[in-house]
Amino acid sequence: MPARIRPWEEWMDGEVHTIHRGMDFQKEPVEMAKSIRFHARYHDMKAKARVEGDSVIFQFLHEEE
């Protein structure tokens, strides 16, 4: 399956987002949470991310938050 384009800028708005495996991403939810944290560090941000079943709930934060 080809890589999906993710709406990172939309997700980095500081709001809490919930994404679902099979609808928003294909990899294991734990791996998606890791990708979110990596993307945050790459953009000098932090991210809170937790896995609940096949969903990932996350929020991007600026370093000072």
Please give a structural write-up.
The model has no long low-confidence stretch (mean pLDDT 92). This protein is an alpha+beta fold and 65 residues long. It has one domain. A hairpin with a 2-residue loop joins β2 and β3. A three-stranded antiparallel β-sheet has the order 1-3-2, with helices on one face. It has two helices and three strands; from the N terminus they run αβαββ. It is 28% helix and 31% strand.
Strand content: 25-35%
Number of domains: 1
Radius of gyration: 11 Å
What about the largest sheet? Answer: 3 strands, antiparallel
Residue-averaged pLDDT, rounded?
92
* Total count of strands: 3
Distance N to C terminus? 36 Å
Biggest sheet, spatial arrangement of strands: 1-3-2
Shape, principal axes of CA atoms: globular
Order of helices and strands: HEHEE
Helix content: 25-40%
Find the structural class using helix and strand composition.
Answer: alpha+beta
- Poorly predicted sequence stretches spanning 5 or more consecutive residues: none
Count of helical segments?
2
